[in-house]
Design brief:
CATH topology of the largest domain: TIM Barrel
Largest sheet: 6 strands, antiparallel
Distance between the termini: 66 Å
CATH class of the largest domain: Alpha Beta
Radius of gyration: 28 Å
CATH superfamily of the largest domain: Glycosidases
Helix content: 10-25%
Oligomer: single chain
Strand order of the largest sheet: 3-2-4-10-7-8
CATH architecture of the largest domain: Alpha-Beta Barrel
Strand content: 35-45%
Structural class: alpha+beta
Number of helices: 15
Shape: globular
Length: 817
């Protein structure tokens, strides 16, 4: 196949000169340089035509952009050799959203869906030498509003017209994201020239798996431009210890191979085994001539959703290769409002941080996009299971034939593209559509919702036909009866935070699988400094309130901080304590649901990442800087977890294990003063079962009631022969009522190999939430935001580009006071 990349340098201009949107922006309607893949907003920024919308409140200054049409233009050269091929197609992997393509002035195709690849035959429009490709993008806002006017307003959260556009819904604004409704060629675009036939939609479908063998059905389509003699497809199968080759003559448009793989190497989620991958190479041959090749990477594993009635309702358990998996992780949103700016390195950093925090599942949320291949490739290699939403969120959707046809095409293309990834373990129809509908319309069922047939009938029918290897779930949340019931299905817990309930209320929730819950925390100081000026840095300035998109978001931050901590005086304190409250809230919830295993079988918090600098529910801000909650998540998602549960006037000590093997050790529980004096101690020898959660010890009020609650706490450590595996602390009073001493912290820095420094932190007395930071450097710590008991120390390692001397001078150490 002869491929000509059409990415790179383009030209662009605005084309709607009339109307309020165009007023005052005349220079945008002249030709300027553009970059493909890209967006009109990033091209306008690069040309100096709009300011950075992430800075201060400049988002408001760019709202005219989405009301304008835009034209993109590229010249390219076609050789005589390329024109000799029987077929030449333009392949556009992503056009955002309403686009008309012309080649040398003649229309070759149109787009009305951002999410799908488009392929247009163009050989008859091309000429040898210079050619011109133009793409005109209509305003997505004007088009969707026009459709809404014609077909009627639906029950939709946020901007109601958005549901008429098959486009990333968050770009119309969300309660954590700005309104930056993009247009442009957002994924790759190219010419493909080939001799009349090509391979399409290669698939490796694992039909069955046992310990001794797996049966895999390999299939592909053979797309032809006309009739011709039979072709041959050769399949090369490679794996960890296997190589085999098969051939098949093809007369029609499809080919299948059913192969038995003996002693397969199974793909496992992170923490439960390895992630071996196999390779299937499809080669299309005309005699001995290679016409086309397509490669598929796949894993061998089985997935089942176990829903078994019990006394509390019905279970909701993900089972991989016959083993129950307790799912731990977070929800994923696009990592930038301008998706083409997201680099492979960003995907790698975020997903490795997820794995390092002991997550084994990521939920791709339905208001964003079907992610780039690099995302799923990384999840395959890292063992991160993917809960994959289809791209619908928080509203009714149209039922008109034209819309249903768009959705069917989108679903077929999305499933065909993603189905080979072993990391995807569940398809989900949408985010919160049925729940919000039933909540706002008491007495009505999910089937009364406009668009219900898409999620009830259309999507599962596409999946049965094109996949069939993993479960489908209609919505998140969903279940029998009310769509967000705790007794069955999956659950979103938003009474806490959004409904003004405080985080101790999490412990009353008995959901079977939680796919959303969360608590806001500010972005890091360094991030806010990059997008504000000094006078903006107060939690109640208009700029900082603009960088929190939830209604009354700032008021909630103050309310919940006041419930637990002394209110801060400075903005620095506000950021630090705000992040600590977020961390405490997520820990409270995750520990509670993990103690219930498998009464609750999954804990996914909202959200892992951000798309711009904002106070939000993320644990990693938009500059990839971890918040306090990220480091705390590494402990509450650890394979072995000690936790406390308040029980009446006493406290229970629990041990929870996700380990695939039994673990022996000693649980040591002590009552300590803040100065480090031991007032009482207890010891329990334990043989912890595989994949279990048990109550180990209960301390009643009589055991610790004689100690001053403002100056004492309980420490529990589970120790094995090779050291402490997990620890936790229980405080009798809220942090605002504790009489925390000056901890007397000292620090030693020792240079190790390369750019790594070992930082040893010592505390004479109790130090709560010790936080390390390196001024002027995005240093990466392997641990942070931890407690130190009186007379103890901890060594953490840090990577930075600083010399030892400069590192030591730039190191800041803070703790809660």
């Amino acid at each position: 196949m002869n491929i000509l990349d059409l990415g790179g340098a383009w030209k662009f201009r605005g084309i709607a000169r009339r109307g309020a949107a165009a007023a005052g922006h005349g220079s945008a309607f002249r030709w300027h340089d553009a970059t493909v893949p890209g967006t009109v907003h990033t091209d306008l920024m690069a040309s100096g035509l709009i300011p950075d919308p992430f800075y201060r409140m400049q988002e408001l200054d760019v709202q005219w952009v989405d009301g304008v049409g835009w034209e993109y233009r590229r010249e390219f050269t076609v050789t005589r050799a390329l024109l000799r091929e029987q077929a030449v197609d333009i392949v556009a992997e992503g056009l955002d959203t309403y686009a008309t393509l012309r080649c040398n002035g003649r229309i070759v195709g149109t787009s009305a869906d951002m999410f799908v690849e488009h392929r247009f035959p163009v050989r008859r429009f091309l000429r040898e030498g210079k050619n011109v490709l133009t793409i005109v993008f209509d305003s997505p806002v004007l088009r969707s509003r026009k459709l809404e006017q014609e077909e009627g307003r639906l029950r939709v959260a946020l901007e109601p017209h958005r549901v008429y556009a098959r486009k990333a819904q968050y770009s119309f604004s969300w309660d954590w994201g700005p309104k930056l409704t993009t247009s442009g060629v957002w994924r790759g675009i190219r010419l493909e020239a080939y001799p009349g036939a090509r391979i399409a939609d290669p698939s490796a479908k694992v039909v069955s798996v046992t310990g001794e063998r797996a049966v895999v059905k390999f299939s592909a389509l053979v797309r032809r431009t006309g009739r011709g003699r039979p072709l041959t497809v050769r399949l090369f199968l490679g794996g960890p210890d296997r190589a085999a080759e098969y051939t098949h003559d093809v007369w029609g448009e499809s080919v299948e191979f059913t192969v038995t793989v003996p002693d397969p190497h199974l793909w496992w989620p992170s923490g439960h085994g390895e992630q071996p991958l196999y390779t299937a190479l499809f080669t299309l041959l005309d005699g001995s001539d290679v016409i086309d090749e397509r490669e598929v990477r796949f894993g061998i594993r089985s997935v089942r959703l176990v829903q078994t009635p019990d006394k509390a309702g019905t279970s909701f358990i993900v089972e991989v290769n016959g083993r129950r998996i307790f799912c731990k992780g977070a929800d994923w949103i696009p990592a930038d409002s301008f998706i083409p700016r997201i680099t492979d390195a960003t995907y790698d950093r975020l997903l490795r941080m997820a794995k390092d925090a002991h997550m084994n599942m990521i939920r791709v949320w339905g208001g964003g996009v079907y992610e780039q291949e690099i995302f799923y490739d990384l999840c395959d290699r890292l063992g991160l299971m993917v809960w994959q939403d289809f791209m619908f969120a928080c509203g009714e959707y149209p039922e008109s034939p034209w819309f249903v046809s768009l959705v069917r095409d989108e679903a077929e293309k999305a499933v065909a593209r993603l189905r080979n990834h072993p990391s995807i373990v569940l398809w989900c129809g949408n985010n919160e559509c049925e729940w919000l509908f039933c909540m706002e319309n008491p007495g009505k069922s999910p089937d009364d919702m406009k668009g219900a047939a898409i999620f009830r009938d259309l999507l599962p029918s596409v999946l049965r036909r094109l996949d069939g290897t993993r479960p489908y779930w209609r919505s998140s949340p969903f279940g029998d009866g009310f769509p967000n019931d705790e007794s069955n299905g999956n659950h979103h817990q938003w009474h806490v935070w959004s409904m003004w309930k405080d985080y101790p209320e999490y412990e009353n929730d008995r959901a079977r699988f939680v796919t959303e819950f969360g608590f806001q925390g500010p972005a890091n100081l360094a991030t806010f400094r990059e997008v504000t000026i000094p006078r903006d840095r107060h939690l109640q300035t208009s700029v900082l309130e603009h960088h929190n998109k939830q209604v009354e978001g700032t008021e909630r931050l103050i309310r919940f901080m006041a419930a637990h901590h002394r209110l801060p005086v400075t903005f620095d304190e506000f950021v630090g304590k705000g992040q600590i409250v977020q961390a405490e809230a997520l820990r409270c919830a995750a520990e509670h649901w993990r103690r219930r295993k498998y009464g609750t079988a999954g804990v996914l918090f909202w959200q892992l990442n951000d798309c711009w600098p904002v106070t939000s529910w993320s644990v990693i801000d938009s500059r990839l800087r971890p918040k306090a909650a990220y480091y705390v998540a590494r402990r509450f998602f650890a394979p072995l977890m000690v936790s406390f549960k308040r029980s009446g006037a006493g406290a229970e000590v629990w041990l929870t294990s996700d380990m695939p093997v039994p673990v022996g050790g000693t649980l040591r529980t002590s009552i300590l003063s803040f100065g480090g004096t031991t007032r009482a101690k207890y010891s329990d020898r334990i043989r912890m079962k595989t994949d279990a959660s048990v109550l180990v010890r209960t301390l009643d009020r009589e055991e610790f009631g004689r100690f001053d609650p403002a100056r004492h706490y309980i420490l529990a450590r589970f120790e094995a022969e090779d050291g402490t595996l997990s620890e936790s602390r229980f405080f009798f009073a809220e942090p605002k009522h504790l009489e925390l001493p000056d901890p007397g912290i000292s620090v030693t820095v020792k240079r190790e190999a390369g750019s790594v420094c070992a930082v040893t932190v010592r505390a004479k007395k109790l130090a709560r939430y010790v936080r390390l930071e390196v001024r002027g450097s995005d240093a990466v710590f392997d641990d942070n935001v931890f407690d130190l008991d009186g007379g103890s120390e901890r060594t953490v390692r840090c990577r930075s580009g600083l010399t030892s001397r400069k590192f030591g001078k730039s190191l800041l150490v803070r703790s809660l006071r």
